């Protein structure tokens, strides 16, 4: 078996049985990164020196017989996670030289189990975007068709896993930033329940919406990674002290008798017909396996984007106030004569267009006279969305829908059409509003749509399995059942 | 509708230095987004409580005790500015923003 196309599960067995070492594995990944990354732009920083030290230590640990399942497993980290001593930029010019003095909690957890960090991956600046075109390092190319976007904001992590440049990768999901790129690049992506994984040391975009999750080649691998990173953290007071199940343990549970909801609003207007067909076919697979399919309605769906683009920029504008060119990052070229000028220059030069727009939108909706009309209204809409999900989950165990209304679009296609870009998140945002988990996984392939000249490449299409809060174990069981029945998740791009 | 003057005002509050071209561009783009937000007026939210904590946690507390964390000099090293006596040397605070 090709060393690079393995799953975490395969690789862990290979490492334990000394078929290969973590150093071999790490070297194989860096060789492939060297060959492929100039095309894809998935990594913005390769941490070679550190990775080989980690790999050697992992090999010693394996030899001693004290290895965990992730010991010696090479992975990629979205450039939003603080990594001690390793440059962390959020793909923003304002942090181009920032080297954090500490590790995010999830990074410490992965270090403790002996995972090997290959490097930091590309993303939309401060996780704001759905195409990875808003990165100061340039866009990530989709491994299935390099003229197309990877999706965003965790585009580098998605492309890295899909193109065999890492065994798994960390990402963040505030409105779809794991699921949408997972769908566009054809890999499995997990968005957890809000608070299931600590956000400590992960740069904040919208604190009441942000979640930390993972990209993997299979559902089972995603469950293995969640096992290592989930749980209460006293450095993040929004992580409840709830027990963490052993996620992979009961993953073979069958879906027979499971009640699966099909939210009709997620299959309506604006959804590419081929995408709809593919996800309906996937639902059929569950029906054949003995699940009960029930139509449900989530009429608040169409209001989620507007609520999101009020509430999250508001939180972003407050969170990004700390980036002033004084405590972190770079000095502006024109420092000005006083502190006020310095702020203007540092932030005006340092932030890209999308961040400037969202900071201003957030400042506006929080300002006197507009707070009630916009911010408070959005938070009330959020309550209604939560109630609607709770009601749906009284009738069904999980729901299945497309991740994105269409497959990956062309680079540049939507960059000047903000609303059309924002609509790419129409089916992922409501899930973040409700704080529930969702698992994205490949469900088929479609050609690029919408009258855009297509290169003819087949593009991956993802579905998402949505569950009530803290139902990750159930999502893994359903997703794993699907991956036992189908082989979409084994397809690899020929990049 | 967000006029260019309003954009300038918001940019000032946000401490963002914008060029004239940016002000023009953002005025039209932000206006478009704000118009889209009007869709929320279709929803009756009378008597609906706002949500800011989605899993229902409240008043999460811990003991107020000092712990070892990052050292002061490591934090100072992140700053691009000159240091003096363990402090970061910044530009003087001279004029009020309103005078600009």
Helix content of chain B: 25-40%
Q: What is the CATH first-level class name of the domain at 4-42 in chain B?
A: Mainly Alpha
CATH class annotation of the largest domain in chain A:
Alpha Beta
What is the molecular shape of chain B? flat
Mean pLDDT of chain A: 96
**Can you tell me the number of structural domains of chain A?**
2
From the alpha carbons, calculate the radius of gyration of chain B and give it in angstroms: 22 Å
Q: Which of globular, elongated, flat, extended, rod-shaped describes the shape of chain A?
A: globular
Report the portion of residues of chain B in β strands: under 5%
Tell me the CATH architecture of the largest domain in chain A.
Answer: Alpha-Beta Complex
Q: State the strand order across the main sheet of chain A.
A: 1-3-2-6-8-7-12-13-11-9-10
Largest interface: A-B, 73 and 55 residues
> Tally of extended strands of chain A?
13
What's the quaternary structure here? heterodimer
Give the N-to-C terminal Cα separation of chain A: 19 Å
The CATH architecture of the domain at 4-42 in chain B can be given as Orthogonal Bundle
């Amino acid at each position: 078996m090709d060393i690079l196309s393995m799953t975490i599960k395969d690789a862990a067995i290979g490492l334990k049985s000394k078929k290969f070492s973590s150093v071999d594995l790490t070297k194989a990944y860096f060789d492939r990164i060297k060959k492929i990354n100039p095309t894809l732009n998935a990594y913005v920083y390769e941490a070679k020196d550190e990775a080989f030290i980690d790999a050697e230590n992992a090999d010693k640990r394996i030899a001693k017989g004290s290895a965990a399942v992730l010991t010696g497993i090479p992975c990629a980290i979205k450039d939003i996670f603080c990594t001690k001593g390793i440059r962390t930029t959020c793909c923003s010019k304002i942090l181009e030289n920032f080297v954090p003095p500490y590790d995010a909690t999830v990074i410490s957890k992965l270090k403790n189990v002996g995972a090997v960090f290959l490097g930091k991956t590309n993303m939309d600046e401060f996780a704001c975007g759905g195409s990875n075109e808003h990165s100061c390092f340039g866009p990530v190319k989709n491994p299935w068709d390099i003229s197309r976007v990877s999706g965003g904001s965790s585009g580098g992590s998605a492309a890295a896993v899909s193109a065999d440049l890492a065994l798994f990768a960390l990402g963040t999901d505030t409105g779809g930033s794991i699921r949408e790129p997972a769908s566009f690049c054809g890999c499995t992506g997990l968005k957890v329940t809000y608070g299931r994984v600590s956000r400590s040391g992960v740069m904040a975009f919208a604190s009441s919406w942000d979640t930390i999750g993972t990209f993997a080649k299979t559902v089972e691998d995603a469950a293995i990674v969640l096992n290592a990173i989930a749980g209460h953290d006293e450095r993040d007071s929004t992580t409840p002290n709830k027990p963490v199940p052993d996620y992979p343990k009961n993953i073979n549970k069958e879906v027979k008798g499971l009640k699966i909801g099909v939210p009709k609003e997620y299959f309506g207007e604006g959804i590419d017909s081929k995408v709809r067909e593919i996800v309906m076919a996937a639902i059929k697979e569950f029906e054949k396996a003995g699940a009960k399919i029930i139509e449900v309605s989530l009429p608040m769906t169409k209001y989620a984007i507007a609520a999101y683009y009020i509430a999250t920029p508001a939180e972003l504008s407050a969170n990004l106030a700390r980036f002033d060119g004084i405590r972190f990052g770079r000095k502006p070229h024109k420092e000005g004569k006083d502190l006020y000028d310095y702020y203007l220059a540092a932030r005006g030069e340092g932030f890209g267009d999308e961040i400037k727009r969202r900071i201003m939108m957030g400042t506006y909706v929080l300002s006197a006279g507009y707070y009630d009309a916009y911010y408070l209204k959005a938070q009330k809409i959020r309550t209604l969305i939560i109630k609607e999900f709770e009601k749906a989950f009284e009738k069904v165990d999980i729901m299945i829908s497309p991740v994105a209304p269409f497959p990956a679009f062309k680079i540049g296609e939507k960059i000047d059409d903000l609303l059309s870009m924002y609509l790419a998140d129409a089916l992922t945002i409501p899930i973040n509003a409700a704080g529930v988990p969702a698992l994205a996984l490949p469900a088929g392939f479609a050609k690029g749509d919408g009258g855009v000249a297509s290169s003819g490449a087949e593009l991956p299409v993802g579905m998402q399995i949505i569950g009530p809060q803290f139902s990750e174990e159930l999502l893994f069981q359903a997703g794993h059942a699907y991956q036992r029945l189908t082989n979409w998740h084994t397809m690899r791009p020929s990049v | 509708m967000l006029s260019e003057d309003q954009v300038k005002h918001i940019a000032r509050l946000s401490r963002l230095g914008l060029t004239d071209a940016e002000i023009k561009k953002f005025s039209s783009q932000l206006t478009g987004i704000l118009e889209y937000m009007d869709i929320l007026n279709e929803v009756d939210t009378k008597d609906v409580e706002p949500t800011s904590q989605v899993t229902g946690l409240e008043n999460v507390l811990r003991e107020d005790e000092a712990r070892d964390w990052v050292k002061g000099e490591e934090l100072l090293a992140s700053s691009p500015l000159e240091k003096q006596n363990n402090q970061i040397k910044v530009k003087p605070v001279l004029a009020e923003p309103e005078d600009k």
